[in-house]
Amino acid sequence: MALLLSGKRILLGISGGIAAYKSADLIRRLKERGAEVRVIQTDAACEFITPLTLQALSGHPVANSLLDPAAEAAMGHIELAKWADLLLIAPASADLIARLAHGLANDLLSTCVLATDAPVAVAPAMNQQMYKNIATKHNIDTLKTRNFYIWGPAAGEQACGDVGMGRMLEPLQLVDLVLEHFAPKVLPLEGVSLVITAGPTREPIDPVRYISNHSSGKMGFALAEAAVQLGAQVTLIAGPVQLATPAGVKRIDVVTADQMYQVALEQAISAHIFIGCAAVADYKVAQVATQKLKKTSDDSTSLTLVKNPDIIAAVAALTSQRPFTVGFAAETQDVANYARQKLVKKKLDLICANDVSLSNQGFNSEQNALTVFWADGEQQFGLQAKTELAQQLLLLINERYLHEKSH
Ligand code: C5P
After folding, report:
1. For the whole model, what pTM was predicted?
2. Do domains 9-182 and 193-288+303-405 have the same CATH topology?
């Protein structure tokens, strides 16, 4: 029977600290679950537990020196760094954490941390006062921003007699975290396909002029990016915007509302969820001039505008293959009322309303706040980065979609 960690290669880094004695048990527990474990010890760690013990438990020679020709010939440091599926450092002393935060490579363990592209998990272990020290806190925060996992520490009695935060997690707790790390993850939007419209549309007046609006497309692009990260398949229909395509997103560029309408209806029928995030121009010029319009001696001029098709209303009106349809309402007053009216009028399943009269949110801003309405409910999302908001909003949309599907 395959064990939960069968085939997983764990490079265990041990730095100097009294908790190093627990690393011996950690190796056993990891191996019991099928993991292959190789050990790197810092010089200080060798003072706390002998390489011989760890060699016997791991079944491999313990690596310690960057400059040992025999060890380098057997399995060089770069090879070791590449070999690992996970680099787990337990215990990680305050000194080692400081060196990692500064990107030092002054011993074998810190060098391997720089040289690996495997995830690195750090289990801090130190005196509670050292852990509380602002320098240590900054160093740990730095590692977090670099996507290191920080596992622990726990609170309790310390070897030095102090009581407080700084104890290394117990070996079995660390094993649980390793198991969780390797457990196959089912993403919440896996198997769900989304079509998202984003950005403004641009309605030509003549070959050089157009009517448009201030939509940046950021919210729609943030939704597309977050949806892919949550496991969805995403088609993004983008008006003219200055934004890079998020990884994994299929992007179709359009310019006018008519083009967006055509592409949206083609795509919507094969999607589970349609999100109309675009700020579609309400009107287009009735007669687009084929030549540049000339200035006249009159003080005023006029253009005849005709209504653009309502894309989202057309998607929501589909009688077969209709996706769960989500609209946006950018309002400057009486937001809840107008949004609810739009929900009903356009026959949407859900509408996300924001107040664009506030200067720090909505159009062209990095931040947004929303209130979401559906037939028999509503939910508020406070002002936050559009990227954060996108994730939370998608989880709610998915929840409502699954709810509708099951009824
Ligand atoms: O009517 P209003 O423009 O305020 O409605 C906003 C919602 O309708 C948004 O979801 C927007 O993407 C969508 N919409 C559309 N086609 C239009 C106008 C708006 O899909 N022509």
Report:
1. 0.67
2. yes
CATH class belonging to 9-182: alpha beta
Report domain extents, the chain. Answer: 9-182, 193-288+303-405
Q: Could you tell me if 246 and 225 are in contact, meaning their C-beta atoms sit under 8 angstroms apart?
A: yes
In this structure, what DSSP letter does residue 115 have?
H
Ligand 1 in reach of 233 Cβ (< 6 A) = no
Token pair of 112 as six digits = 């391997």
Neighbours of 227 (CB within 10 A): 29
pLDDT in tens, the chain (407 residues): 678 999 999 999 999 999 999 999 999 999 999 999 999 999 999 999 999 999 999 999 999 988 877 778 777 888 999 999 999 999 999 999 999 999 999 999 999 999 999 999 999 999 999 999 999 999 999 999 999 999 999 999 888 888 999 999 999 999 999 999 999 888 999 999 999 999 999 999 999 999 999 889 999 999 999 999 999 999 999 999 999 999 999 999 999 999 999 999 999 999 999 999 999 999 999 999 999 999 999 999 999 999 999 999 999 999 999 999 999 998 889 999 999 999 999 999 999 998 888 766 666 678 889 999 999 999 999 999 888 899 999 999 999 999 999 88
Query: Which residues partner with 155 through β-bridges?
Result: 165
Pocket test for ligand 1, best of 312, 351, 356 (most atoms within 8 A of CB): 312
What architecture does CATH give domain 193-288+303-405?
3-Layer(aba) Sandwich (3.40)
